[in-house]
Amino acid sequence: MQVEIIRGEGLNSNIFILSSENEEKILVIDLGLDGLQTNFALKKVLGKMTEKMTDFQIEVFLTHCHIDHVLGSDNLAEFTNVQYSASSQTAKHINEKDTVTLLSMYGSGEINYTVEKVYKDNEKITFKGADLEVIHSPGHTDGCAVVYDKKSKSLFAGDVVFAGAGCGRVDLPTGNRTTLIASLNKLAELELEHLYSGHGPDLHTNVKENILAAKKMLEW
Ligand SMILES: [Zn+2]
After folding, report:
1. Which of the two residues, 65 and 51, has the higher pLDDT score?
2. pLDDT tens-digit series, residues 145-178
3. Cα-to-centroid distance, 219 and ligand 1 (Å)
4. Distance from residue 192's CA to the centre of ligand 1 (Å)
């Protein structure tokens, strides 16, 4: 499995683009905001990845419904075979464009797609060359979910936990400190070597310690 990263600037979330040899599917984790810079970067990466593919599909998995992770669908406008996926709660927030998305706070941009594929807790994402599983990890929002690759021991964590022992805010709609602590406990039990979070840098050492330290900060 190959991981390409478009690093989010400012409020923008990181975007992770996963590809694998012999897999006619690209998995994009989170979309960032719309905007020229993201647009250019994403097109470039996808163009290169799909160069030798004839019949490919793009799946966009959204870790949660916040605008800084879900607004960039225009960047994929030239692709016809795009499917959006998420946990059921996140799908509900996005499809209903409700207050949990924070859309009303942002003031520009709109969600112009529907999340059709819903993943249950511990459900696998079909993807050759990896062993991907969706793990529901509520607390930052009630619909937060991470993608875990058992094969490479990688965690795509959205805003659940960040490198530097930080975690997502719990004071936004449906945020809950106790729930987030429970989610961090669950994630700390995984075998982990790589942490790819929704904002900031990645982490390739002491990932479990980082999660436990984030939990401690939250319990304080
Ligand atoms: Zn968020």
Report:
1. 65
2. 999 999 999 999 999 999 999 999 999 999 999 9
3. 20
4. 22
Strands 117-119 and 123-125: unpaired
- Ligand 1 centroid – CA 66 distance (Å): 5
For residue 159 the two structure tokens come to 């805003």
Ligand 1 centre and the CA of 183: distance in Å?
Answer: 15
CATH of the domain at 139: 3.60.15.10
C-alpha 167 to ligand 1 mean position (Å): 10
* Per-residue pLDDT reduced to its tens digit, 181-195: 999 999 999 999 999
Specify the number of domains making up the chain: 1
Tell how far the Cα of 11 is from the centroid of ligand 1, in angstroms: 10
- Please give the residue range of the domain that contains residue 59: 2-219
For residue 107, what pLDDT is reported?
A: 67
